[in-house]
Design a protein that fits this description.
447 residues, alpha/beta, TIM Barrel, 8-stranded parallel beta barrel, two-stranded antiparallel sheet, 18 helices, 11 strands
Length: 447
């Protein structure tokens, strides 16, 4: 479906998009995003994504930084925890479900994010991800700030040890790509470089805070006029030992000592006992995980009172039992990252055709046989690798019958409502409107 077919709906003049028929555009956005995602010509694909992004901005869905809200959180914690949601597959449909629930509950304090690793195995570059999310906002009539975030923009230790310049430049390039796609929230993760062989905690954290500062300065150099990107740091690699106040202070003091930018960090990711994706048992069920909520409370209070940050960030939480989620606002956590639980709902849905699921699982068993660890059951292997089934079968996922996708989205909406309620983000549009002033960044469209 070429742009010319939409000439009665859109006009591009001097590189700017003007909308002629907003209601008709809302009806047609399904076709526009489907066509763009499955476009095989890379140059055409980029142009289509850029066009969709500009349409969304003209319709009132504006990619924004959450910095203003987090600065307010640093002054007075408002009693809610912002969910940051990673969408690995069916991104447009899942984002629509989120926006529907947000509109119904007057929620505005939520983030769409994708991690460095997910960009690879889901085959979603930042521009595609932002276009899918913003197209969903158009379809559902959501207006206001839309928060897009680069999650775990991480220095991979083994690559860094081999060639630190190349690895650092890779992450710098990813940051540039994300900001150009209007991700105005970036989580830098150099916690992988913490050196526990050093005698003092400050020296252990030095490689972490020095590289965070380097990458944060890079972020600041790329900011569009009028936007302060919200930057997160991390002290405890998820899945490791629990973080301590001493580590938080060493990292944040060290960052302050070496950082040469203006605004610093807005939040701090810590480890409190979780593991990304949860721990899967031999029968395929998820083991109960005990989160150290007292650690989360102490560290959130510390970074807020002593450093003005919004609070601490909890990773790897989507597979926790439902009753755990009430605790995050109670402990003052400013943000929580959620991914695998939504993936599980999609794969385990009774509405997903069995032959479709089997096709993907058979592919995984063949393609990733080398990742099948000794002693792992088939259920454990499938659980740990099925996230890699979204990218190679993107066309097949997107082409599932509407009635199948609609039923799966109904299940997801129920989960979103439960989580949004427990995290207390209902009725947050007022505080977001007060603290976040969306800036429409000018992007030229050339057809």
């Amino acid at each position: 479906m070429e742009f010319e077919k939409f000439s009665e709906l859109i006009e591009v003049k001097d590189g700017k998009v003007m909308l002629k028929n907003k209601e008709k555009l809302r009806e047609e956005i399904d076709n526009l995003i489907f066509d763009a995602v499955l476009e095989e010509n890379e140059e055409k694909k980029v142009k289509k994504f850029l066009l969709i992004k500009e349409i969304a901005k003209e319709m009132g869905a504006i990619p924004s930084s959450i910095q203003g809200l987090y600065e307010e959180m640093g002054r007075v914690f408002p009693g809610f925890t912002v969910p940051a949601i990673n969408i690995r597959g069916l991104t447009y449909d899942v984002a629509r479900a989120i926006f529907r629930k947000a509109k119904e509950k007057d929620a505005a304090a939520f983030i769409f994010e994708i991690a460095r690793s997910e960009i690879g195995y889901t085959k979603q570059r930042p521009l595609e991800y932002s276009a899918c999310v913003l197209a969903a906002a158009v379809k559902e009539g959501f207006t206001g700030p839309v928060f897009l975030q680069g999650d775990h923009f991480q220095i991979v230790r083994r690559y860094f040890e081999k060639d630190p310049v190349m690895e650092t430049n890779y992450v710098k390039g990813l940051i540039k790509e994300a900001i150009e796609a209007e991700f105005y929230n970036i989580d830098i993760d150099t916690s992988t470089l913490v050196d526990l062989s050093k005698e003092t905690i400050y020296e252990q954290q030095r490689p972490n805070f020095e590289n965070t500062a380097l990458l944060a300065e890079h972020v600041r150099s790329l900011e569009p006029e009028g936007i302060t990107v919200s930057i997160g740091g991390e002290i405890g690699e998820i899945g490791g030992k629990n973080s301590t106040p001493e580590e938080a202070r060493a990292y944040l003091d060290g960052f302050r000592d070496v950082y040469k930018g203006n605004k610093g960090l807005s939040k701090l990711s810590v480890q409190t006992g979780t593991k990304h994706g949860g721990v899967v048992l031999p029968d395929g069920s998820i083991a109960q995980v005990k989160i150290d909520f007292e650690t989360l409370r102490i560290l959130s209070e510390l970074v807020r009172k002593e450093y003005g940050l919004s609070g601490c960030v909890q990773h790897g939480a989507s597979t926790l039992p439902e009753e755990a989620f009430d605790k995050f606002p109670e402990t003052g956590a400013s943000e929580i990252h959620l991914a695998t639980g939504f993936q599980n709902i999609i794969y385990d849905s009774k509405h997903l055709p069995d032959d479709f699921r089997k096709m993907i699982y058979d592919f995984l068993k063949k393609q990733f046989a080398s990742e099948w660890k000794e002693g792992q059951t088939e259920e454990q292997f499938i659980y740990s690798t099925r996230k890699k089934g979204f990218g190679p079968f993107k066309k097949e996922w997107w082409s599932l019958p509407k009635e199948v996708k609609d039923k799966i989205m109904e299940e997801l909406e129920q989960k979103f409502e439960l989580l949004f309620g427990k995290l207390k983000i209902f009725n947050t549009s007022e505080i977001v409107k007060k603290t976040v002033k969306p800036v429409k960044v000018s992007v030229d469209i050339n057809f």
